[in-house]
User: What shape does this take?
Amino acid sequence: MTSRPPSIVWFREDLRLADNPALAAAVAAGGPVVCLFILETGIDGVRPLGGASKWWLDKSLQALAGSLAKAGGRLVLRNGHPKAVLFDLIGETGASSVFWNRRYGEAEKNADADIKSALKDAGVTAQSFNGRLLMEPWELKTGSGGYYRVFTPFWRALQAAYAPPAALEAPKRIECAQIENERLADWKLHPGAPDWSAGMSAAWTPGEAGAKARLLAFLEGPVNQYAEDRNRPDLDTSSSQLSPHLRFGEIGPAQIWRAVKAGVAAGRIDERPAHVFLSEIAWREFSHVLLSFNPQLAQKNYNPNFDRMPWRRDAAALTAWQRGETGYPVVDAGMRQLWQTGWMHNRVRMIAASFLTKHLLLPWQAGEDWFWDTLVDADPAINAASWQWTAGSGADAAPYFRVFNPMTQGNKFDETGGYVRRWCPELAKMPDKFLHAPFEAQESVRSKAGVTLGLSYPEPIVEHSAARQRALDAYKQTREEQGAA
Assistant: This one.
């Protein structure tokens, strides 16, 4: 009796065993399974991971390897061009089929299509699945047959159309093909000389088990306060903090959707906060729709009228923003949280992004690029779509005249000052009244708190009112030039 040939499951942005359709298909094929991850090189247009994402990937692959080992499997690591790696493995193992979950960037889609065609020409079964989104970007269409450019109608349509597929259990046993492997340590994804990742190690547990624990902890209580607390950066429970786990596919959005809906049905979760929370999952979906139909979302203005925007070039201001040394405490706290943990609360992301693009009048691409390198959840769709939204150049964007006042935002959403005091400890003794604007306090007040502007804490790099007016003037100029064109 001839045993069945091996199947290859190619892990990419789906580093989990449960609810993984590509893995389920490979196991169902009946033969040995080659569980493969490729550190891809040689594909034009694929954006290299940033430093924080590399750190996360290193830990996530370790976790995946451990989970596979418990099921009798083995994670195979190879680096190179994926087509070459796959054909090499097929030659080594005699594999007759390859399964993977789809990606949605243009370069990745083109590479996958080329690989699928080549495999089929060689007589190898190649099958791909949706393991990353609730619905494929092209499935939801407007009445005119196009894609949604405004979030609210997209969210309504998604709720009406989406029904999660049946959950796929993690395989209890995986028959493993024994082949040559590479060492993860040789890929040098973990930073060295210096190793700046201590804060991220303290904050996160990458991997499928860490993702499940985050979801469970959030749904056991904090979710019911989400509608009221989601803009509170001082509360660790105000966010699910699932974004990096979603980014690397350690949990899928369908799993989250099912868990939330089950909680509502059982009466554990109230409908209103559940709806608000799932709308954030829908923003992720909307961002992927935008990326799918606008491949240059991270480089080019979605709204081409912003090509006329008179952005400034100011390396010193950009550096001050990156380092959390703008003199505006809520902005600085966010940028320091980002640097230390690889993550920033969403409300503060909007404040920091508004400050860069409007107070400093620096191009959104500079901020998007910094976030890409420093965020553990740097997603090619969400990062770009969110930056363009704040800058005013994106789909369904914030109005050009919305310039977040960092003092007002700080007083409103960090009312107790817990967030700023945590990440800007030099301001810890400032009274609440002046915590978000220490430059407005009398010298005697600052002295009593041990704060010396320009020494212990920076002076503001721009004056708010003047910077706001400069931004409004620039946006007005852009609109006038648009009208004259």
User: Anything to note?
Assistant: The chain has a mean pLDDT of 96. The chain has three domains: 7-130, 133-166+207-293, 304-480.
